Amino acid sequence: MPELPEIANLARQMTKELHGKRIGKIELTQPKCLNISAKRFRRIIGKTVKETKAHGKWLFTRLEPKDNLLLNLGMGGDLRYHKNRNTLPEKYQLRLTFRDTTELTASFSWFGYIHLASDEELPKHKMTSKLGISPLDEKFTVDRLSSILSGRRGNIKSFLLDQKNIAGIGNVYVQDTLFKARLHPLRKIQTITQPEIAALHQSMREALYQSIKLGGLRYERDLYGRHGRYGPEQFIVAYKESKPCPACGTVIVKARTGSTSSYLCPKCQQL
Ligand SMILES: [Zn+2]
Questions:
Q1: What is the mean pLDDT of the chain?
Q2: Nearest 5 degrees, angle CA 109-CA 88-CA 6?
Q3: Distance 189 CA to ligand 1 centre (A)
Q4: How far, in Å, is the centroid of ligand 1 from the Cα of 245?
């Protein structure tokens, strides 16, 4: 499942390739992932593509005049740019053909969304208007993290995974983020100290930026179909059960924590 680094890379690549292109044709094959009818989507024909931004697991592409294409690749999807028809996938839910004959396709197996929202509708768009701050946002400071955490109940891992609090961290990046901050996934938020919040803030951004630099996760693909290079060599405790902890040598365990699995060092991340 793509997380923020993969989405941020796609946004950058989409802006690079598509900015300034005019939409010539649109084909939509799955009504279930749309927020309006396929017929009403045709209003984007003739519009010009502007920049694409990432927020959480969503891609926001501005269309001139006054529209926004919102894409969410769900549990495993591919967004692909095509210079010619040879690279078109067999199945896709979205196919945009630009006036210069290049194309963009989105294909996903599960839970993807293709939405359209005008500038007026965008602030009220249900699935994105409640997203929390992006950890890559310059306003996401240690103080901001402290204030988001303040007065909150429950455990830190569920908090981080809830996209309404902070948007873009999923069950892959959260593992090493918690390890580096030496926090147990089930640690109660009220007991987390100020230095631990600062460590968490730093570890969160480190993992995300390192992955962006390496093109995202190895099992995800970018706009050109290339795999990322962030994989097992970069993981510290994530997916390393029964391996020794690099900090203390204790065996890393995989534990059920609420509705998700966690990888952790029982010595470095005590409850
Ligand atoms: Zn350890």
A1: 95
A2: 55
A3: 21
A4: 5
